[in-house]
């Protein structure tokens, strides 16, 4: 215990003791109209020596000396009532047990006194907690000097999150932010007050000249609002030239409460028109809990998020495999900070190194494998097709055989929508990996279920356009877009990984799952939104320059090729693709021949060899 916690515990102990002593004597007075008869006066003066220690010990059992003085909520109230009820029950049991024994009559309280004392004690200690909380809030409010010119804040969203935010701003005046108005779309909240702050009306009232002048900045506190509405509010605030921030999204808020330190700028993810996805969390949890799980490419954007979401499901151990110590170190530190030291194991290993992978399978016996390690950069792989094949195809095949040999229960390949009618080496190499897994699953009876999950671009990943655009905007432009009509499907990294976990436990082996990516987004529109979020105007402050499609790049992405049929699953956001698997021996022979050629023929010839195995592939030849 720190000095501060000892100080808090001592304060509560002394306050509770005072309450219990006073309530003891007051209970006797009320029970006997302040004329205590001689027959019970001994119990009046000696009984508190038994009753008060019992109550203090019960409070210790209920952990009422380690509570935070700043908080007193309904659950805290029920715990206090539970403690005083338990104390009263103990005293009543003592009364019944010692009622006929004159030796103990002097220290046993009459029943009526016990009941009155219960009411007084409960009321008293609740009052203590409320008073201490009020004093603590006053002390917090007085922390630091209030700036001579506090900034006036409008809060959009008069719900629980907005109310929590306003309360913190009001109690911590040293922050220099004063909430002066709420704005909300719900007419039933208009003309009401929340923590003394008026709810004016819809956010569109900010166009009124008087309201605009009355505010210095605005906080958007609508974590559950549709992206479309968030976008409308952002454009409104840009129109009236008000500075704005937002609260975290619902999946980032552990509770309905929000702190000022959690405020952040509005990001492009907030403006994508995607509705929150509901997962079958209990089923996923049951499949992962207590098992050993391996993630390859654990240091990457998808791999690291897989690690986060897997650890939330309490596996026995998580094997975080990556060939780069630089990428693996941050996720290792994050796991340690979350208290997973020993449970999350960082392992340096290249999926191309079969001996190292075999050692890891032999040493740790993984039961589930999520294979996220891959080369993903489309233009770079066009000039080095052999490396794409080695990492994305051949390494996947060898890892799958190890999974089969060591009786892994499920092997999940993280694939891409670029594997559909591929025009790039990267997409074709991923498609070859899918073909191999399907052949392996169908080729012979085995205990391992092999499957692949395809999805499109994820915002914030290492290959996303968002970091590129952000850097170009920071440098003053131009922002480069390959084609005015190019479109892509987008989802956030947590959303994509959540659906990967959902799909992973649907498959029976040999399936390819496709995630519902929503509606395609024009890349040029994405660029314009990012420029506007930076407080600049597209084509005026920042130029948008079209550079032409790159080698292997598609104008738009597809969801399936003509030989694949869509079939529904138990989740509306996950589709299963059904196609006929090729004979395993045929696929193995073709890949073995291809692997022998990768360093002995020039890249155009290698691309044509790939096309022989993936007929729908349209290679870019130079």
Describe the structure.
The chain is α/β, with parallel strands linked by helices and 622 residues long. It has three domains: 3-142, no CATH class; 151-266, 3-Layer(aba) Sandwich (Rossmann fold), CATH 3.40.50; 288-463 and 489-519 and 559-613, 3-Layer(aba) Sandwich (Rossmann fold), CATH 3.40.50. It is 47% helix and 14% strand. A nine-stranded mixed β-sheet has the order 9-8-7-10-11-12-17-21-20, sandwiched between helices. It has a six-stranded mixed β-sheet with strand order 3-4-2-1-5-6, sandwiched between helices. Helix 4 (74-98) runs antiparallel to helix 5. The longest helix has 32 residues, at 111-142.
Summarize the structure.
With 622 residues, this protein is an alpha/beta fold.
Descriptive terms for the model:
622 residues, alpha/beta, Rossmann fold, 3 domains, nine-stranded mixed β-sheet, six-stranded mixed β-sheet, 21 strands, 47% helix, 14% strand
By DSSP (H or I, 4+ residues per run), the number of helices equals 21
Q: What's the multimeric state?
A: single chain
The shape is: flat
Integer count of domains: 3
| Class inferred from helices and paired strands | alpha/beta
Share of β-strand residues: 5-15%
Q: What's the pLDDT, averaged over the residues?
A: 82
List the topology elements.
Blueprint: H1 3-31, H2 38-46, H3 48-61, H4 74-98, H5 111-142, E1 151-156, H6 160-171, E2 177-183, E3 193-194, E4 197-201, H7 209-214, E5 217-220, H8 227-239, E6 243-246, H9 268-271, H10 281-288, E7 292-296, H11 301-311, E8 317-322, H12 325-337, E9 344-348, H13 354-364, E10 368-371, H14 378-383, H15 385-405, E11 410-414, H16 425-443, E12 449-454, E13 457-459, H17 465-474, E14 479-481, E15 487-488, E16 490-492, H18 493-504, E17 511-515, E18 521-522, H19 523-533, E19 544-546, E20 565-568, E21 574-578, H20 584-597, H21 603-613
Parallel strand pairs: 1-2, 1-5, 2-4, 5-6, 7-8, 7-10, 8-9, 10-11, 11-12, 12-17, 13-16, 14-19
Antiparallel strand pairs: 3-4, 15-18, 17-21, 20-21
Helix pairs in contact: 1-3, 1-5, 3-4, 4-5, 11-18, 13-15, 15-16, 16-20, 16-21, 17-19, 20-21
């Amino acid at each position: 215990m720190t000095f501060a916690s000892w100080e808090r515990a001592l304060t509560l102990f002394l306050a509770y003791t005072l309450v219990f002593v006073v309530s003891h004597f007051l209970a006797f007075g009320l029970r006997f109209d302040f004329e205590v008869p001689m027959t019970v006066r001994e119990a009046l003066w000696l009984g508190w020596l038994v009753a008060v220690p019992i109550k203090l010990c019960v409070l210790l059992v209920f952990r009422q000396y380690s509570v935070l003085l700043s908080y007193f909520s309904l659950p805290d109230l029920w715990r206090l009532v539970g403690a005083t009820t338990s104390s009263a029950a103990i005293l009543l049991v003592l009364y019944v047990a010692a009622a006929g024994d004159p030796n103990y009559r002097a220290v046993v309280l009459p029943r009526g006194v016990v009941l009155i004392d219960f009411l007084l004690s409960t009321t008293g200690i609740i009052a203590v907690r409320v008073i201490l909380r009020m004093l603590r809030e006053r002390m917090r409010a007085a922390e630091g000097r209030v700036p001579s010119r506090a900034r006036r804040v409008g809060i959009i969203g008069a719900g629980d999150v907005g109310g929590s935010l306003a309360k913190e701003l009001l109690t911590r005046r040293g922050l220099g932010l004063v909430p002066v108005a709420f704005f909300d779309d719900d007419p039933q909240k208009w003309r009401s007050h929340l923590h003394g702050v008026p709810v004016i009306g819809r956010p569109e009232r900010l166009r009124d000249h008087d309201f605009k002048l009355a505010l210095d900045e605005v906080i958007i506190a609508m974590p559950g609002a549709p992206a479309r509405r968030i976008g409308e509010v952002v454009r409104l605030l840009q129109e009236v030239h008000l500075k704005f921030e937002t609260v975290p999204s619902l999946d980032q808020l552990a509770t309905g409460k929000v702190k000022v330190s959690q405020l952040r700028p509005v990001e492009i993810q907030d403006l994508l028109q995607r509705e929150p996805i509901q997962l079958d969390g209990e089923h996923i949890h049951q499949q992962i809990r207590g098992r050993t799980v391996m993630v390859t490419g654990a240091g990457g954007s998808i791999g690291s998020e897989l690690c986060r979401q897997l650890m939330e499901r309490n596996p026995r151990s998580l094997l975080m495999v990556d060939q780069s110590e630089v990428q693996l170190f941050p996720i290792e530190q994050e796991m340690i900070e979350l208290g997973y030291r020993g449970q999350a194991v960082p392992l340096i290993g290249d999926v191309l190194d079969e001996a190292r992978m075999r050692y890891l399978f032999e040493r740790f016996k993984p039961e589930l494998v999520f294979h996220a390690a891959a080369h993903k950069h489309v233009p770079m792989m066009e000039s080095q097709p052999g490396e794409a094949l080695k990492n994305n195809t051949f390494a996947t095949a060898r890892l799958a055989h190890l999974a089969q040999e060591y009786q892994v229960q499920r092997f999940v390949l993280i694939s891409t929508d670029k594997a559909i009618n591929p025009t790039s080496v990267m997409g074709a190499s991923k498609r070859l990996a899918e073909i191999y897994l399907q052949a392996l699953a169908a080729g012979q009876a085995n205990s391992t279920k092999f499957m692949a999950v395809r999805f499109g671009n994820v915002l914030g990943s290492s290959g996303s356009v968002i970091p590129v655009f952000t850097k170009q905007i920071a440098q003053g432009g131009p922002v480069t877009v390959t084609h005015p009509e190019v479109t892509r499907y987008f989802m956030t990294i947590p959303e994509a990984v959540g659906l990967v976990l959902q799909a992973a436990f649907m498959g029976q082996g040999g399936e390819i799952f496709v995630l519902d990516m929503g509606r395609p987004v024009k890349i040029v529109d994405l660029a314009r939104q990012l420029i506007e979020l930076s407080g600049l105007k597209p084509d005026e402050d920042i130029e948008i320059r079209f550079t032409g499609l790159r080698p292997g790049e598609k104008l738009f992405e597809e969801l399936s090729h003509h030989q694949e049929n869509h079939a529904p699953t138990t989740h509306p956001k996950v589709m299963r693709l059904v196609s006929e698997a090729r004979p395993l021996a045929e696929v193995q022979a073709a890949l073995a021949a291809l692997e022998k050629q990768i360093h002995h023929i020039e890249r155009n010839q290698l691309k044509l060899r790939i096309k022989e195995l993936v007929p729908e592939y349209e290679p870019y030849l130079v």
